[in-house]
Design a protein that fits this description.
Layout (H helix, E strand, L loop, with lengths): L2 H27 L4 H4 L15 H18 L5 H25 L12 H14 L18 H10 L14 H4 L1
Length: 173
């Protein structure tokens, strides 16, 4: 295969992974896989959470394709596809776990319109602590925050966590 073809496969794998991630997040993690993902919608008590197993599960196809392309003679296409899936995983790790959830300390502040939009969309996703009523399931592509706020309002604010500092307001009032 030509280097251009391999590059196209690599890029196509990254793009396809956003669609795959949306589907898995929307219908698996917020469906039958909630037993793992629920830990991600609660305050973390340590460095690891049950939801981290999804990172391992989603790495398997990449590992298999890379091994197939490099060691088992499947062809360079498999290496390019496995590398694209791994690249998406690295982008996801950087955006989701490091930038949004700050699992590693940093001073980065989103300044571009794009980064502000996806960070806010992800935070609106986490405003809901139940598997129902959630909005915005993508990671790199997200609706405008105003649209997400409208969707949350239309859902009757089902499962929305209390604002910080107001957790005890219902008890006091």
């Amino acid at each position: 295969m030509s280097p251009i073809s391999l590059l196209l496969i690599f890029v196509a794998a990254i793009v396809a992974m956003e669609g795959f991630a949306y589907v898995m997040h929307r219908w698996v993690m917020h469906g039958p896989g909630w037993f793992l993902h629920a830990s991600h919608h609660r305050p973390r008590t340590g460095f690891w959470e049950a939801n981290d197993l999804y990172f391992v599960i989603f790495a398997m196809p990449s590992i298999l394709l890379l091994a197939g392309g490099v060691r088992w003679g499947w062809g360079h296409w498999a290496t390019a596809m496995g590398a694209g899936i791994a690249a998406y995983g690295a982008i996801y790790l950087g955006f989701h776990d490091i930038i949004v959830h700050r699992r590693l300390k940093h001073r980065y502040v989103a300044r571009s319109r794009y980064m502000k939009r996806i960070v806010q969309a992800h935070r609106l996703h986490h405003a809901v602590e139940t598997k129902e009523g959630t909005v915005s399931f993508g990671f790199l592509v997200a609706p405008h925050p105003a649209e997400l706020k409208r969707q949350l309002a239309d859902k009757g604010r089902v499962g929305i966590r209390p604002a910080k500092g107001l957790e005890d307001a219902a008890v006091k009032g």
